[in-house]
Write a structure and sequence with these properties.
The protein is α+β, with helices and mostly antiparallel strands. The protein has two domains: about 190 residues, no CATH class; about 160 residues, Reverse transcriptase/Diguanylate cyclase domain (Alpha-Beta Plaits, 2-Layer Sandwich), CATH 3.30.70. Helices cover about 60% and strands about 10% of the residues. The protein has 15 helices and seven strands. The strands form two sheets. Strands 2-3-1-6-7 form a five-stranded mixed beta sheet, with helices on both faces. α15 links the parallel β6 and β7. The N terminus is likely disordered.
């Protein structure tokens, strides 16, 4: 029993990751982790000593196919027909591993994963899983989805574990690594969903509230609003509006000496703390100038002919400006929430004075 429990670490780690994926509705991750949990159980000999060898063989025979299908399929709801079909295939492979007659098993072993190839089954299995990894990593490169990067990394480790030179104890250890990576990735991805704005890539209002609750000492807050943003959206479309917000967020990220947040809609917030507070006005003025220098390519929607002519997609570039209201903590206004209100009033003063300016109070 003492020797048996370490072997259960692999299915335990992957099972925990599976529960987290289900809880946070990471459906592709949940399907892949269900496959890895079953594979971990097969490798550790959970079904009994007489099936140890068969379990290791089944992992190289069936797992690459299932992982390749799971990685290639688009993200869908968990009980979508494609996922149910994949889980049915998993059930069939489990049944074959446990109950296939002894005279049938060698024929299956010679057939899978690609028995007609001259290479060892472990090498073929590794190659197929690496292709599955490429699917996930490609999605990460195209869409910048952190979870896809983590799944790609998990599949790389799985591919190494299937190499013919890797023993069952070593493969079990690598499966533990897979489960640990998946747990960290799901928790990190869920944190990003809760505290990071998906469009701007900046910490969101909830993150700002928590940062304000921890503030002490000297600090300054700057509220930022994109000028005439509703008009910009109406004229150029919401896709152009999203690009404009991303462009402004990019400028905020490069503003030194502060932490940037997306407050909501077209509003952003900068937080200066400690000695950096003294340079807040200068940093805000520099940000305003950099934003005013932006030129965004857009497709104009004001010209009906250009809307109808799909070949003429680019109608030129447009200029963006921002207004900034800055407030510094003082003896009279000490609470962070009150400083934020003063910064908001300064922002409205900047807009009422003609926009594209910094007003401090």
């Amino acid at each position: 029993m003492v020797e048996f429990w370490p072997g259960l670490a692999a299915p335990l780690f992957n099972g925990v990751a599976l529960m987290l994926a289900l809880g946070f509705r990471r459906n592709r991750a949940a399907v892949i982790l269900a496959l890895l949990t079953c594979a971990s159980l097969a490798i550790c000999g959970f079904a009994g000593p007489h099936l140890n060898q068969r379990g290791a063989e089944a992992t190289r025979m069936f797992l690459p196919w299932l992982l390749l299908i799971a990685a290639a399929l688009p993200e869908r709801r968990l009980l979508a027909r494609r996922n149910l079909l994949l889980l049915a295939l998993l059930a069939i492979t489990v049944w074959l591993t446990l109950y296939a007659p002894e005279h049938i098993w060698p024929k299956l072993r010679n057939m899978f994963p690609l028995g007609w190839l001259p290479w060892k089954s472990g090498l073929v299995a590794t190659g197929m899983v690496l292709i599955a990894s490429v699917f996930c990593l490609s999605r990460w490169l195209l869409a910048r989805l952190p979870m896809e990067f983590s799944l790609g990394l998990v599949l790389l480790v799985v591919g190494v574990s299937l190499l013919p030179q890797v023993s069952s104890p070593a493969a079990s250890t690598l499966m533990i690594v897979c489960g640990a990576i998946a747990v960290v990735a799901i928790l990190h991805s869920s944190y990003r969903m809760a505290f990071v704005d998906g469009l701007a890539g900046l910490p969101n209002r909830r993150a700002l509230d928590e940062a304000l609750a921890r503030l002490s000492g000297d600090f300054a807050l700057a509220m930022i609003d994109v000028d005439h943003f509703k008009m910009f959206n109406d004229r150029n479309g919401h896709a152009a509006g999203d690009r404009a917000l991303k462009a402004v967020a990019g400028q905020l990220k490069t503003t030194r000496g502060c932490d940037a947040f997306r407050y909501g809609g077209e509003e952003f917030c900068l937080l200066f703390t400690g000695a950096r507070t003294r340079h807040a006005r200068e940093a805000c003025e520099d940000l305003r100038k950099r934003a005013a220098a932006l030129r965004l390519p857009v497709r104009s929607q004001s010209d009906a002919k250009r809307r109808q002519a799909s070949a003429r997609r680019d109608a030129g570039t447009v200029k963006l400006t921002i207004s900034i209201g800055l407030a510094v903590r003082t003896e009279r206004v000490r609470a962070a929430v009150d400083v934020l209100k003063v910064a908001d009033k300064a922002l409205y003063a900047a807009k009422s004075q003609g926009r594209n300016r910094v007003v401090s109070k």
